[in-house]
């Protein structure tokens, strides 16, 4: 019998090898992508003949086209999107797109342009997006062209421009994104900027330029969506920059800096220029505030969103009086020592507070946030919260509107009975990588959260055999239990899941599961996604699931060798199963499943990674063709 | 016979995967008692890394410059480092470098096709480097889990 099996195996191996040897290697260089073709990275020197004339999207990046003529793309008349990134293009001659009336997007990033004809872009009816980033452009005169009047996006980033001369020779009524970042622009004059007063909702970036002077009034009457001046303070003080912004109206103003740029100090005096700027949101990321006080905020009246990430803050002033409209406050990566030092009474409209990755141990024992009755989002993740004897009713006191709470990646803490009594409206609670101690004789910790829809308890050292853990969560839709453990590795009964009848997504990856008892998932009648990957299961059982009509099952990275085909045959409709990286037997003992997989590619997720175990380790099951006794 | 068939299969798979020669090993530091080498482990391209000088028997600041060509944009960028000492894994280090809401570095947000050069000063304490061989696998991934750069670093102190 063994000898016979050996012969079959050898035959199937040989067939596999021969099949590979006789099949000619494919000649198609370009890959089919959504709506077009990807010919990138082949060092092509022309458009391949096999590319159909009808191609609308073409990624031709990382090839070799030193010169582009009007014949280069002539037959591709339907082009809408053309990516010519890093094609070592030096010369662009006249009317290269004379046949491409529909061309909207052209990416020329990373080509060292030496010549660009003034009629290069003649042809397209409406070229909307043009990227000339890192193309060695020195000034706007180089690209002056009447065929760019309908542009919506122009990226001139990472070039060598040190002037905005010729900016006002363009007509850019439709311009939405104009990017001058990482150039050497030194002066911004009122004359140069006048053309941009006619645009509305523009995103304009001067990030990381060498600005020396902005003429006061240069931005007068400009109405932008965003203006980015971050990292542009090496040669000039913040005072001079902000004086130049007089009269500007913008939704977002970026004035921060970067870890790899020089230190920038924002004094109360230097920020006075903001009194004549109208804005909704400002970013001061990574700045220093040497004289932080109420005066620092004097010109931020009416602000809605304030970004102070890594702004070297240890406190916020007590006497800030004009921030009653602030709804979003980002304080990640600062050095607060106590939550009460936020002085949140200054921000009564706050709906979103992000305070992750504080660099010091963060004391949070008092009801420091109780004035924030409108707060809906609170991120306290990646901290060293010191909550005292227990959490969290004292700490979350007053947060009656809170919907989203992130406590993940914190140090050990003890939870009192019903720790979220003060936040009954919670919809999302993230406690991953949070080791919390909870007295199992009390109520389930979430028993008063009927509105909770998503709960993440991954790597939270939770005992999943505690049947009261999910008590009260009748509205829960998504549950992540990754990295916790069941007693003896067995999902024993349905008791735990009876509390979550509406659950749609259940993630139980890396829970050390070796077996699932019959009926364990019976109460989960709404389940549409079950992730049991990275466990120690040796069989696939689908009978535990209420319905197989619309469900995604993930059994990847288990120890499954043989799949009983009866358990996968029942997958109906859009249902799928992922069996990748299991040591599947690729012999006649598993032939029925392998044949089923071959005929049901649409039901097999990650088929490319669904492979055989020993002795054919790593061979894709889709490459295995078995001929077994008794087969038709 | 069985052995022969498996060997054929192996050769066939190697041909399909199109395995290429590894990138050359580059030397960034070669002094009497400290040697630092690196080689790219990216299937598409090599990377450039250079030190201003070798720290020799003393602590000091070293300027490091690295260049990589972006095959995809880096709105988000994550660094992952795995360190082994004399063949034994001793450290895993992960950190975000660029996040959409917090672009920490100037190069955050740069686009496919741009050449990114990053310079930085590193304080190297020569005494802290253990004797023997340290190997580090350094990987940068973007928002699509696409590998932006990958290189193996070997540090040998005698």
Task: Tell me what the structure shows.
Chain A contains five helices and 36 strands. Chain A has a 25-stranded mixed beta sheet, with no helix packed on it. In chain A, strand 15 (223-228), helix 3 (238-243) and strand 16 form a beta-alpha-beta unit. The longest helix of chain A has 21 residues, at 2-22. Chain A is flat and about 75 Å long. Residues 1-26 of chain A have low confidence and may be disordered. Chain B has a single domain (22-157), classed as Immunoglobulin-like. Chain B is built from one helix and ten strands, in the order αββββββββββ. Chain B has one helix at residues 2-17, and strands at residues 26-30, 34-40, 48-51, 60-69, 77-85, 88-99, 102-103, 115-124, 132-142, 147-157. In chain B, the strands form two sheets. In chain B, strands 1-2-10-9-5-6-7 form a seven-stranded antiparallel beta sheet, with no helix packed on it. Chain B has a three-stranded antiparallel beta sheet with strand order 3-4-8, with no helix packed on it. In chain B, strand 5 and strand 6 (88-99) form a beta hairpin. The longest helix of chain B is centred in the first third of the chain and has 16 residues, at 2-17. Chain B is globular. Chain B: Residues 38-155 form the MD-2-related lipid-recognition domain.
Keywords:
heterodimer; A: 632 residues; mainly beta; 25-stranded mixed sheet; 3-stranded parallel sheet; 36 strands; 7% helix; B: 158 residues; Immunoglobulin-like; 3-stranded antiparallel sheet; 1 helix; 10% helix; 51% strand; globular
